[in-house]
Design a protein that fits this description.
single chain, 11-stranded mixed beta sheet, 4-stranded mixed beta sheet, alpha+beta
């Protein structure tokens, strides 16, 4: 009995000591000013704050409520202390997210004379869906689940008077993740089948081009996306290097279609760039990865006339959209800043295809070390 009483007394004394030094909670409703290069849609998932106590490493989640195009509110009521702040991006229905930048430190100070402010600012920069990985979406899902388990969604709904549903937020992000995982699997398959094409490219070339090939012929390739989906196409550049002064490269687009799980050569109009040995033809090509088209300039050195076309892939066929035709004295417009040089790779260099496997595809903007000449490829590749 004495031992039991002693134990109970010790517990009471411990509780008393703890209650005497309990950490104060600072109540603060913070107003956030939001600057974004694209307005967050109402259908996007919730924006979360992830606050980590710098002493205990305990994590607290807070959900932004009353979110408008340029503002929002967060209940920053926390135990007194200093916190490291991280932000969990909203996810848009199309799978895009935001780079969120704001204060990285927050001090919850119970001193009424403190300079702590309830006004904060955030800057959100949109990241297009093709730059987002499945790993990033999975991390956002884990944070949403942890915030919901902590009760952050229910608390934000209660104090704001507006329902903020963890379930709806998870549905948005889960859908984006499902689509992203499928995209990454499609790109893995495309990577493998495109490698097979490079092992035997003649099987994918027109007969009239194959008839011009010799041991002097060169092959290069690149990846572009001028179609309607997210999987890029393989574009081959074949330069016969004949004895008539030709440095003309014939372009062939090969497409893996994940919806049909098929590999096919694009039909439609033929494409060529470079300089013809006779007839005065000149052609050049650029790629616009933002609007998903090839910029094709052709001109005749004899007549001085030129034309600019946008080249697209529609229903597995190459189509041209005429931008303009120009006479020898006409002022022809220059390519836009988004019409980029094309990076061409030797068919023995699988690095771009390895990079494609299991990831979203983004175009690598050429730099000073990138080959932008389609005629500089392996000679005699593929049994030429």
């Amino acid at each position: 009995m004495r031992k039991l009483l002693a134990s109970l007394l010790a517990v009471v004394m411990s509780v008393g000591l703890l209650s005497g030094c309990m950490t104060k909670t600072v109540s603060l409703k913070a107003n956030f000013t939001i600057t974004s290069d694209r307005e967050i849609s109402p259908e996007a998932s919730a924006l979360l704050l992830k606050l980590t106590d710098s002493l205990s490493n305990k994590v607290y989640y807070r959900v932004m409520a009353n979110r408008q195009a340029d503002s929002g509110q967060v209940d920053m009521s926390l135990p007194e202390g200093e916190y490291d702040v991280a932000y969990v991006s909203p996810v848009e229905p199309d799978g895009s997210i935001y780079q969120v930048e704001g204060s990285e430190k927050f001090v919850a100070d119970a001193n009424p004379d403190s300079s702590s402010s309830g006004d904060f600012s955030l800057t959100l920069t949109l990241r297009q869906p093709q730059t987002v990985t499945s790993g990033e979406l999975e991390a956002i899902i884990e944070d949403i689940k942890a915030a919901d388990q902590e009760g952050a969604f229910a608390a934000a709904s209660e104090w704001s008077g507006t329902t903020i549903s963890a379930e709806e937020t998870l549905q948005t992000v889960n859908k984006a993740l499902e689509e992203k995982l499928q995209e990454e699997q499609n790109n893995t398959t495309a990577s493998e089948v495109y490698k097979d094409v490079l092992q035997d490219p003649k099987a994918y070339l027109p007969a009239d081009v194959v008839s011009k090939l010799s041991s002097n012929s060169a092959l290069t390739y690149t990846l572009v996306n001028i179609g309607e989906g997210k999987t890029p196409q393989l574009m081959l550049a074949i330069t016969p290097h004949d004895n008539f002064g030709n440095s003309l490269s014939y372009l062939q687009v090969v497409e893996y279609d994940p919806t049909q799980n098929t590999l096919q050569v694009a039909g439609g109009e033929a494409l060529s760039i470079g300089v013809a040995g006779a007839g005065g033809f000149r052609g050049s090509m650029r790629y616009n990865p933002y609007e998903k088209y090839l910029y094709h300039l052709t001109l005749s050195s004899g007549s001085g006339r030129s034309a600019i076309n946008k080249v697209l892939l529609q229903n597995h066929a190459i189509v041209r959209e005429l931008v303009g035709e120009y006479g020898p004295t006409d002022d022809r417009p220059d390519p836009s800043e988004q019409d980029l040089d094309i990076a061409w790779y030797d068919p023995k260099d699988f690095a771009p295809l390895e990079e494609l496997a299991g990831k979203p595809w983004t175009y690598s903007v050429p730099d000073a070390n990138t080959n932008t000449d389609p005629t500089k490829g392996s000679l005699g590749t593929g049994g030429f």
